Amino acid sequence: MLENIVIVLLVINIVLLLFAKITSPRDETGGLRARQAAPAALMYDANDFCAYHSHIVLQPFEQGGARFLFDCKLPDSNEPVDMIMLAKSGVYVFEHVKASGWITGMESNEKWTERVQMGYGRKPQENKFDNPVRIAEDNVHKVREFLNRDGLMVRSIVVFPDFCYLNNIKVFNPNTRVVTLDQLLPALVAINNKIGTNITQHQINELYDALLPYELIPTDESE
Q1: How far apart are CA 161 and CA 54, in angstroms?
Q2: Looking at residue 10, what DSSP letter applies?
């Protein structure tokens, strides 16, 4: 009986130690460490999904000097860029997709597909939407052209709600990532740690000032 109690207490201690290590926002070297976002803390549906949720998840990057811009409509662009993050590892251009269910698509496809289960025994509803990777990569081109900085690394991040399941997604561009919201922070932390420093804090502030005049703030969001 006593041995069983000792074993249980030992297991509990191990679990607590592992939990403390996993939830630590920084590793032993002082770098950013991935922390899983809690989807339950971000209540929304597909119609509500937007850059706001990604900004919440990526707030740890602000501690390292990153700056964010929203709805930037650059010159000669028809549509604004959802969100831009300026970090020491480079510039990240975000495209947020309002979808649900099972998502399939390839980088070369004109349209991607969402399949939503309508209930037990019923055929899933299938909807087509514009290839978000193409949209994001086009925005990367516009941002890179506008900033016009040699050596500046600009990447595209396509983000789906965390209740989507990414099935058979094929993207070959190494500077593009397709993730769900709960995968976003670990994905960017991995890129950040791999790349290291691409621009200084002073350069981040300069780029922010250059982009700020093109940031749109709709009246209803401002209120």
Answers
A1: 10
A2: H
pTM above 0.85, yes or no: no
Instruction: Give the strand order in the sheet containing 154-160.
Output: 67-72, 81-87, 90-96, 154-160, 176-180
Task: Kindly give, in sequence order, each residue whose CB lies less than 8 Å from that of residue 152, ignoring residues fewer than 6 positions away.
Answer: 90, 91, 144, 198, 199
pLDDT by residue (tens digit) across 180-202? 999 999 999 999 888 888 899 99
Res 22 pLDDT > 80 = no
**Are the C-beta atoms of residues 169 and 178 closer than 8 Å to each other?**
yes
Query: What is the Cα–Cα distance from 38 to 185, expressed in whole angstroms?
Result: 11
Distance CA 81, CA 95 (A): 7
Give the DSSP letter of residue 124: P
From CA 122, how far away is CA 140, in angstroms rounded? 40
Contacts of 149 (CB under 8 A, 6+ apart): 203, 207
Both tokens assigned to 102: 């099972």
Q: Which long-range contacts (CB under 8 A, 24 or more apart) does 75-78 make?
A: 75/146, 75/214, 76/142, 77/142
Task: Report whether pLDDT(51) > 60.
Answer: yes
| First-to-last C-alpha distance (Å) of the chain | 63
**For residues 187 and 177, is the Cβ–Cβ distance under 8 A?**
yes
Burial class of residue 166 in the structure, from the number of CB atoms within 10 Å of its CB (0-12 exposed, 13-18 middle, 19+ buried)? middle
